């Protein structure tokens, strides 16, 4: 799941759903679980950030959010690498 060099956390929501997160330089972000297929989207600015699978999972974090920033990515690996770069440049944060 996500980037091999980053620690992965598995959280369980109140609804019993599992949620995978990774951490880089003080920033936590979501990544799809191992059996989740795309399409994948990278959200670097929104009400939550991460690499998310499907428009339906991503939309609540960006729709109607002024300054939201997102892009489609071809793979989870690409999304996580771009997220790391955005965090290091100070360009990824929760709005």
UniProtKB/TrEMBL annotation:
Top-level taxon of the source organism: Eukaryota
Name of the protein this chain belongs to: Uncharacterized protein
Organism: Pisolithus microcarpus 441
